[in-house]
Amino acid sequence: MLNQEVYDELTAKFEKMYGEKPEVVAYAPGRIEVLGNHTDYNEGFVFSAAIDKGTFFAISPSKDESCELTAGDFMETAKFSIRDVKPAKEMSWQNYVTGTFNWLFDGNPSSAKHGFRAMFLGNIPLGAGLSSSAALEMCAALAFSKIYGIEKDRTALAKIGQKAEHTFAGCPCGLLDQASSMYGKAGALVKSDFRTNEFESVPMGDGVAFMMVKSNAKHALVDGAYASRRQACEEAAKYFAGVLRKGGVTHLRDVTMAEWVLYRGGLSETTAKRAVHPIGEDERVLQGAALLAKGDLKGFGALMYDSHESSRSWFENSCEELDAIVDAAKAIPEVYGARLSGGGFGGSCCLLVDPAAADRIAAQISREYKAKFGDEPVCSLIRPSDGAHLV
Ligand code: GLA
Protein backbone atom coordinates (compact mmCIF):
# COMPACT_ATOMS: atom_id res chain seq x y z
CA MET A 1 0.00 0.00 0.00
CA LEU A 2 1.23 3.51 -0.79
CA ASN A 3 1.60 6.02 2.02
CA GLN A 4 -1.30 8.11 0.70
CA GLU A 5 -3.54 5.02 0.70
CA VAL A 6 -2.55 4.23 4.28
CA TYR A 7 -3.38 7.78 5.30
CA ASP A 8 -6.77 7.67 3.55
CA GLU A 9 -7.69 4.33 5.07
CA LEU A 10 -6.63 5.42 8.55
CA THR A 11 -8.55 8.69 8.55
CA ALA A 12 -11.67 6.98 7.16
CA LYS A 13 -11.52 4.24 9.80
CA PHE A 14 -10.88 6.81 12.52
CA GLU A 15 -13.91 8.85 11.54
CA LYS A 16 -16.11 5.76 11.37
CA MET A 17 -15.01 4.53 14.77
CA TYR A 18 -14.86 7.79 16.73
CA GLY A 19 -17.46 9.84 14.82
CA GLU A 20 -15.11 12.76 14.07
CA LYS A 21 -12.03 13.61 12.02
CA PRO A 22 -8.73 13.27 13.89
CA GLU A 23 -7.38 16.54 15.24
CA VAL A 24 -3.77 15.60 14.50
CA VAL A 25 -2.09 13.03 12.23
CA ALA A 26 1.62 12.29 12.39
CA TYR A 27 3.82 10.05 10.25
CA ALA A 28 7.10 8.29 10.98
CA PRO A 29 9.12 6.00 8.67
CA GLY A 30 10.94 2.74 9.31
CA ARG A 31 14.69 2.56 8.81
CA ILE A 32 17.44 0.52 7.22
CA GLU A 33 20.81 0.13 8.88
CA VAL A 34 23.51 0.49 6.22
CA LEU A 35 26.83 0.26 8.10
CA GLY A 36 27.66 0.17 11.82
CA ASN A 37 26.03 -2.80 13.52
CA HIS A 38 25.47 -2.89 17.29
CA THR A 39 27.52 0.28 17.62
CA ASP A 40 24.76 2.57 18.89
CA TYR A 41 24.72 1.38 22.50
CA ASN A 42 28.53 1.31 22.40
CA GLU A 43 28.39 5.08 21.73
CA GLY A 44 29.74 4.58 18.21
CA PHE A 45 28.87 5.49 14.63
CA VAL A 46 26.17 4.29 12.21
CA PHE A 47 25.08 4.96 8.64
CA SER A 48 21.34 4.41 8.29
CA ALA A 49 18.41 5.82 6.34
CA ALA A 50 14.72 6.42 6.84
CA ILE A 51 12.69 4.43 4.31
CA ASP A 52 9.70 5.30 2.15
CA LYS A 53 7.31 3.22 4.24
CA GLY A 54 6.04 4.09 7.69
CA THR A 55 3.21 4.43 10.18
CA PHE A 56 0.53 7.10 10.56
CA PHE A 57 -0.91 7.97 13.95
CA ALA A 58 -4.26 9.81 14.16
CA ILE A 59 -5.44 11.33 17.42
CA SER A 60 -8.03 13.56 19.06
CA PRO A 61 -8.32 14.51 22.72
CA SER A 62 -11.06 12.81 24.76
CA LYS A 63 -13.32 14.84 27.05
CA ASP A 64 -12.25 13.02 30.22
CA GLU A 65 -9.39 10.83 31.44
CA SER A 66 -10.26 7.89 29.20
CA CYS A 67 -7.94 6.65 26.46
CA GLU A 68 -8.77 4.47 23.48
CA LEU A 69 -6.06 3.15 21.22
CA THR A 70 -6.87 1.15 18.09
CA ALA A 71 -4.54 -0.85 15.88
CA GLY A 72 -6.03 0.06 12.49
CA ASP A 73 -4.99 -3.14 10.69
CA PHE A 74 -6.80 -5.73 12.79
CA MET A 75 -9.08 -3.18 14.52
CA GLU A 76 -8.24 -4.18 18.07
CA THR A 77 -8.83 -1.50 20.71
CA ALA A 78 -7.13 -1.06 24.08
CA LYS A 79 -9.03 1.05 26.62
CA PHE A 80 -7.44 2.53 29.72
CA SER A 81 -7.31 5.69 31.82
CA ILE A 82 -4.45 8.18 32.05
CA ARG A 83 -4.22 6.98 35.69
CA ASP A 84 -3.64 3.42 34.62
CA VAL A 85 -0.82 3.46 32.08
CA LYS A 86 1.36 0.39 32.49
CA PRO A 87 2.98 -2.34 30.37
CA ALA A 88 0.36 -4.74 28.97
CA LYS A 89 0.78 -8.50 28.46
CA GLU A 90 -2.19 -8.86 26.14
CA MET A 91 -2.32 -6.82 22.94
CA SER A 92 1.34 -6.07 23.58
CA TRP A 93 1.48 -3.81 20.50
CA GLN A 94 0.02 -1.08 22.68
CA ASN A 95 3.19 -0.95 24.80
CA TYR A 96 5.07 1.05 22.15
CA VAL A 97 2.41 3.73 22.35
CA THR A 98 1.57 3.65 26.05
CA GLY A 99 5.29 3.59 26.91
CA THR A 100 5.84 6.65 24.73
CA PHE A 101 2.85 8.40 26.32
CA ASN A 102 4.13 7.52 29.79
CA TRP A 103 7.64 8.93 29.25
CA LEU A 104 6.46 12.00 27.38
CA PHE A 105 4.94 12.90 30.74
CA ASP A 106 8.13 11.88 32.59
CA GLY A 107 6.51 8.73 33.94
CA ASN A 108 3.52 10.66 35.34
CA PRO A 109 0.84 10.39 32.62
CA SER A 110 -1.96 11.21 35.05
CA SER A 111 -0.66 14.78 34.86
CA ALA A 112 -2.04 14.92 31.29
CA LYS A 113 -5.00 17.30 31.11
CA HIS A 114 -7.19 14.74 29.31
CA GLY A 115 -7.16 11.34 27.64
CA PHE A 116 -7.20 10.60 23.91
CA ARG A 117 -8.71 8.54 21.11
CA ALA A 118 -6.12 7.31 18.69
CA MET A 119 -5.64 4.89 15.82
CA PHE A 120 -2.56 3.92 13.86
CA LEU A 121 -1.89 2.17 10.57
CA GLY A 122 1.28 1.54 8.61
CA ASN A 123 2.82 -0.30 5.67
CA ILE A 124 6.17 -1.48 7.08
CA PRO A 125 6.38 -5.28 6.83
CA LEU A 126 6.56 -6.69 10.38
CA GLY A 127 9.49 -8.81 11.54
CA ALA A 128 11.64 -7.60 8.64
CA GLY A 129 14.10 -5.62 10.73
CA LEU A 130 12.78 -2.32 9.40
CA SER A 131 11.93 -0.95 12.84
CA SER A 132 8.17 -0.80 12.61
CA SER A 133 8.06 -0.43 16.40
CA ALA A 134 10.32 2.64 16.41
CA ALA A 135 8.19 4.15 13.62
CA LEU A 136 5.10 3.66 15.78
CA GLU A 137 6.80 5.26 18.80
CA MET A 138 7.97 8.24 16.78
CA CYS A 139 4.66 9.04 15.08
CA ALA A 140 2.90 8.63 18.44
CA ALA A 141 5.48 10.89 20.10
CA LEU A 142 4.97 13.65 17.52
CA ALA A 143 1.17 13.38 17.66
CA PHE A 144 1.06 13.38 21.48
CA SER A 145 3.46 16.36 21.66
CA LYS A 146 1.19 18.27 19.34
CA ILE A 147 -2.14 17.65 21.06
CA TYR A 148 -0.70 18.13 24.56
CA GLY A 149 1.40 21.15 23.61
CA ILE A 150 4.66 19.55 24.79
CA GLU A 151 7.76 20.98 23.13
CA LYS A 152 10.70 18.62 22.86
CA ASP A 153 13.40 18.32 20.23
CA ARG A 154 13.75 15.27 17.97
CA THR A 155 16.53 13.69 19.99
CA ALA A 156 14.49 13.98 23.19
CA LEU A 157 11.51 12.31 21.44
CA ALA A 158 13.78 9.56 20.11
CA LYS A 159 15.02 8.90 23.66
CA ILE A 160 11.43 8.72 24.91
CA GLY A 161 10.72 5.99 22.34
CA GLN A 162 13.87 4.15 23.39
CA LYS A 163 12.78 4.31 27.03
CA ALA A 164 9.40 2.86 26.01
CA GLU A 165 11.27 -0.06 24.41
CA HIS A 166 13.36 -0.60 27.54
CA THR A 167 10.58 -0.38 30.10
CA PHE A 168 7.33 -1.30 28.33
CA ALA A 169 8.42 -3.59 25.47
CA GLY A 170 11.37 -5.25 27.21
CA CYS A 171 14.03 -4.62 24.53
CA PRO A 172 17.32 -3.00 25.68
CA CYS A 173 17.93 -1.34 22.29
CA GLY A 174 20.15 1.62 21.46
CA LEU A 175 18.89 4.85 19.91
CA LEU A 176 19.48 3.99 16.24
CA ASP A 177 15.97 3.08 15.14
CA GLN A 178 14.23 6.06 16.70
CA ALA A 179 16.95 8.54 15.63
CA SER A 180 16.90 7.29 12.02
CA SER A 181 13.12 7.65 11.88
CA MET A 182 13.43 11.21 13.22
CA TYR A 183 16.43 12.46 11.24
CA GLY A 184 16.00 10.77 7.84
CA LYS A 185 16.35 12.93 4.70
CA ALA A 186 15.26 12.10 1.15
CA GLY A 187 18.16 10.91 -0.98
CA ALA A 188 20.58 10.87 1.94
CA LEU A 189 22.02 8.63 4.60
CA VAL A 190 21.94 9.59 8.25
CA LYS A 191 25.41 9.44 9.80
CA SER A 192 24.95 9.21 13.54
CA ASP A 193 27.42 9.71 16.35
CA PHE A 194 25.83 8.10 19.40
CA ARG A 195 28.24 9.73 21.83
CA THR A 196 27.41 13.29 20.92
CA ASN A 197 23.99 12.48 19.42
CA GLU A 198 24.85 14.40 16.26
CA PHE A 199 22.93 13.31 13.19
CA GLU A 200 24.32 14.41 9.84
CA SER A 201 22.77 13.98 6.36
CA VAL A 202 25.13 12.49 3.78
CA PRO A 203 23.78 12.65 0.18
CA MET A 204 23.89 9.36 -1.73
CA GLY A 205 23.67 10.42 -5.39
CA ASP A 206 21.07 9.23 -7.91
CA GLY A 207 22.71 6.18 -9.45
CA VAL A 208 22.29 4.04 -6.38
CA ALA A 209 19.57 2.58 -4.20
CA PHE A 210 19.09 0.00 -1.49
CA MET A 211 17.35 -3.31 -1.76
CA MET A 212 16.05 -4.96 1.37
CA VAL A 213 15.84 -8.72 1.17
CA LYS A 214 13.68 -10.17 3.91
CA SER A 215 14.59 -13.70 4.89
CA ASN A 216 11.90 -15.83 6.42
CA ALA A 217 14.07 -16.50 9.45
CA LYS A 218 12.68 -15.46 12.80
CA HIS A 219 13.70 -12.04 14.04
CA ALA A 220 13.07 -11.49 17.72
CA LEU A 221 15.15 -9.04 19.69
CA VAL A 222 13.18 -9.58 22.85
CA ASP A 223 14.23 -13.20 23.27
CA GLY A 224 17.52 -12.45 25.02
CA ALA A 225 20.11 -12.78 22.24
CA TYR A 226 20.25 -9.02 21.71
CA ALA A 227 20.52 -8.41 25.45
CA SER A 228 23.33 -10.93 25.83
CA ARG A 229 25.34 -9.24 23.05
CA ARG A 230 24.88 -5.88 24.70
CA GLN A 231 26.01 -7.31 28.05
CA ALA A 232 29.16 -8.79 26.52
CA CYS A 233 30.04 -5.41 24.99
CA GLU A 234 29.57 -3.66 28.32
CA GLU A 235 31.66 -6.25 30.12
CA ALA A 236 34.45 -5.82 27.54
CA ALA A 237 34.33 -2.03 27.87
CA LYS A 238 34.82 -2.35 31.65
CA TYR A 239 37.79 -4.63 31.10
CA PHE A 240 39.45 -2.26 28.62
CA ALA A 241 38.83 0.66 30.98
CA GLY A 242 40.92 -1.26 33.52
CA VAL A 243 43.84 -2.40 31.34
CA LEU A 244 44.33 0.50 28.93
CA ARG A 245 46.65 3.10 30.33
CA LYS A 246 44.54 5.97 29.09
CA GLY A 247 41.72 7.80 30.75
CA GLY A 248 38.17 8.16 29.65
CA VAL A 249 37.36 4.64 28.42
CA THR A 250 33.66 4.15 29.08
CA HIS A 251 32.42 2.30 25.99
CA LEU A 252 33.86 0.19 23.18
CA ARG A 253 33.86 3.40 21.13
CA ASP A 254 37.02 4.29 23.06
CA VAL A 255 38.92 1.11 22.15
CA THR A 256 40.93 0.80 18.92
CA MET A 257 41.48 -2.35 16.90
CA ALA A 258 45.20 -2.30 17.83
CA GLU A 259 44.28 -2.20 21.54
CA TRP A 260 41.85 -5.08 21.10
CA VAL A 261 44.62 -7.15 19.45
CA LEU A 262 47.06 -6.38 22.26
CA TYR A 263 44.75 -6.96 25.21
CA ARG A 264 42.06 -9.41 24.03
CA GLY A 265 43.84 -12.25 25.87
CA GLY A 266 42.46 -11.03 29.20
CA LEU A 267 38.87 -11.54 28.03
CA SER A 268 37.04 -14.83 27.62
CA GLU A 269 37.13 -15.99 24.03
CA THR A 270 33.42 -15.27 23.50
CA THR A 271 33.55 -11.79 25.02
CA ALA A 272 36.61 -10.93 22.92
CA LYS A 273 34.76 -12.03 19.78
CA ARG A 274 31.74 -9.91 20.65
CA ALA A 275 33.84 -6.83 21.42
CA VAL A 276 35.75 -6.74 18.14
CA HIS A 277 32.56 -6.40 16.09
CA PRO A 278 31.50 -2.89 17.19
CA ILE A 279 35.16 -1.80 17.30
CA GLY A 280 35.59 -2.83 13.65
CA GLU A 281 32.22 -1.39 12.69
CA ASP A 282 33.16 2.04 14.04
CA GLU A 283 36.30 1.99 11.90
CA ARG A 284 34.30 0.89 8.87
CA VAL A 285 31.76 3.71 9.26
CA LEU A 286 34.54 6.30 9.41
CA GLN A 287 36.27 4.76 6.37
CA GLY A 288 32.90 4.58 4.63
CA ALA A 289 32.31 8.30 5.18
CA ALA A 290 35.62 9.08 3.47
CA LEU A 291 34.77 6.76 0.55
CA LEU A 292 31.29 8.24 0.09
CA ALA A 293 32.80 11.72 0.04
CA LYS A 294 34.90 10.58 -2.93
CA GLY A 295 31.88 8.92 -4.59
CA ASP A 296 33.49 5.47 -4.22
CA LEU A 297 30.39 3.28 -3.96
CA LYS A 298 32.26 0.06 -4.70
CA GLY A 299 34.65 0.77 -1.82
CA PHE A 300 31.70 1.56 0.45
CA GLY A 301 29.99 -1.67 -0.64
CA ALA A 302 33.12 -3.69 0.16
CA LEU A 303 32.87 -2.39 3.74
CA MET A 304 29.28 -3.65 3.86
CA TYR A 305 30.50 -7.14 2.94
CA ASP A 306 33.20 -6.89 5.65
CA SER A 307 30.54 -5.84 8.12
CA HIS A 308 28.49 -8.92 7.37
CA GLU A 309 31.52 -11.15 7.73
CA SER A 310 32.21 -9.62 11.13
CA SER A 311 28.60 -10.27 12.19
CA ARG A 312 28.83 -13.83 10.97
CA SER A 313 32.13 -14.81 12.51
CA TRP A 314 32.64 -12.54 15.53
CA PHE A 315 29.29 -11.29 16.77
CA GLU A 316 27.40 -14.40 15.67
CA ASN A 317 24.19 -12.50 15.02
CA SER A 318 23.72 -13.81 11.48
CA CYS A 319 22.01 -17.04 10.41
CA GLU A 320 22.18 -19.32 7.36
CA GLU A 321 19.36 -17.54 5.56
CA LEU A 322 21.08 -14.13 5.82
CA ASP A 323 24.46 -15.63 4.90
CA ALA A 324 22.90 -17.20 1.79
CA ILE A 325 21.47 -13.83 0.70
CA VAL A 326 24.86 -12.13 1.09
CA ASP A 327 26.63 -14.96 -0.76
CA ALA A 328 24.13 -14.74 -3.62
CA ALA A 329 24.57 -10.94 -3.72
CA LYS A 330 28.37 -11.23 -4.01
CA ALA A 331 28.06 -12.97 -7.38
CA ILE A 332 26.00 -10.14 -8.93
CA PRO A 333 28.09 -7.26 -10.38
CA GLU A 334 25.31 -4.67 -9.93
CA VAL A 335 25.29 -5.29 -6.19
CA TYR A 336 28.02 -3.18 -4.58
CA GLY A 337 27.67 -4.50 -1.05
CA ALA A 338 25.37 -6.47 1.26
CA ARG A 339 25.05 -7.16 4.96
CA LEU A 340 22.52 -7.98 7.60
CA SER A 341 20.66 -4.93 8.83
CA GLY A 342 19.60 -4.30 12.42
CA GLY A 343 19.70 -6.60 15.41
CA GLY A 344 20.30 -9.78 13.39
CA PHE A 345 19.36 -13.40 14.17
CA GLY A 346 16.97 -13.26 11.20
CA GLY A 347 15.21 -10.30 9.61
CA SER A 348 16.62 -8.68 6.47
CA CYS A 349 19.76 -7.96 4.51
CA CYS A 350 20.47 -4.53 3.12
CA LEU A 351 22.02 -4.43 -0.37
CA LEU A 352 23.58 -1.42 -2.07
CA VAL A 353 22.50 -1.77 -5.71
CA ASP A 354 22.31 -0.22 -9.13
CA PRO A 355 18.51 0.45 -9.29
CA ALA A 356 18.45 -0.16 -13.06
CA ALA A 357 19.27 -3.83 -12.40
CA ALA A 358 16.83 -4.22 -9.48
CA ASP A 359 14.50 -6.78 -11.11
CA ARG A 360 17.33 -9.00 -12.22
CA ILE A 361 19.00 -8.84 -8.80
CA ALA A 362 15.76 -9.71 -7.01
CA ALA A 363 15.09 -12.62 -9.38
CA GLN A 364 18.55 -14.11 -9.01
CA ILE A 365 18.65 -13.86 -5.23
CA SER A 366 15.13 -15.27 -4.91
CA ARG A 367 16.00 -18.19 -7.15
CA GLU A 368 19.09 -19.12 -5.15
CA TYR A 369 17.33 -18.65 -1.83
CA LYS A 370 14.40 -20.82 -2.94
CA ALA A 371 16.73 -23.59 -4.08
CA LYS A 372 18.21 -23.71 -0.56
CA PHE A 373 15.26 -23.04 1.73
CA GLY A 374 12.16 -23.84 -0.34
CA ASP A 375 10.47 -20.46 0.06
CA GLU A 376 11.14 -17.03 -1.39
CA PRO A 377 12.52 -13.95 0.33
CA VAL A 378 10.78 -10.61 -0.16
CA CYS A 379 12.89 -8.09 -2.09
CA SER A 380 12.00 -4.39 -2.04
CA LEU A 381 13.79 -1.43 -3.51
CA ILE A 382 14.19 1.35 -0.97
CA ARG A 383 15.00 5.00 -1.52
CA PRO A 384 16.15 6.98 1.52
CA SER A 385 13.30 9.27 2.55
CA ASP A 386 12.36 12.10 4.87
CA GLY A 387 11.97 11.46 8.58
CA ALA A 388 8.97 11.81 10.91
CA HIS A 389 6.63 14.77 10.52
CA LEU A 390 3.13 16.04 11.24
CA VAL A 391 0.76 15.58 8.30
C1 GLA B 1 18.31 -3.08 16.66
C2 GLA B 1 18.29 -2.09 17.82
C3 GLA B 1 19.20 -0.88 17.54
C4 GLA B 1 20.60 -1.34 17.13
C5 GLA B 1 20.53 -2.42 16.06
C6 GLA B 1 21.86 -3.05 15.77
O1 GLA B 1 17.76 -2.49 15.52
O2 GLA B 1 16.97 -1.65 18.07
O3 GLA B 1 19.25 -0.03 18.65
O4 GLA B 1 21.32 -1.76 18.25
O5 GLA B 1 19.64 -3.47 16.42
O6 GLA B 1 22.75 -2.12 15.24
Short account of what is shown:
The chain has 391 residues and is α+β, with helices and mostly antiparallel strands. The protein has a domain at 4-34 and 46-203: 2-Layer Sandwich (Ribosomal Protein S5, domain 2), CATH 3.30.230.
- Cα distance spanning the termini: 18 Å
**Biggest sheet: strands, sense, closure?**
8 strands, mixed
- The oligomeric state is single chain
Structural class: alpha+beta
CATH class of the domain at 4-34 and 46-203: Alpha Beta
Task: Give a written overview of the molecule.
The structure is a single chain. The chain is α+β, with helices and mostly antiparallel strands and 391 residues long. The protein has a domain at 4-34 and 46-203: Ribosomal Protein S5, domain 2, CATH 3.30.230. Helices cover 42% and strands 22% of the residues. The chain is built from 11 helices and 12 strands. It has helices at residues 3-18, 94-104, 132-148, 154-169, 176-183, 225-243, 257-263, 269-293, 297-315, 320-330, 358-373; strands spanning 24-35, 45-61, 66-71, 76-81, 116-122, 188-193, 198-203, 209-214, 335-341, 348-353, 378-382, 389-390. Strands 1, 2, 3, 4, 5, 6, 7 and 12 form an 8-stranded mixed β-sheet that branches. A hairpin with a 4-residue loop joins strand 3 and strand 4. Helix 4 packs antiparallel against helix 5. The mean pLDDT is 96. Bound molecules: alpha-D-galactopyranose. Alpha-D-galactopyranose is lined by residues 33, 37-38, 40-41, 173-174, 176-177, 342-343.
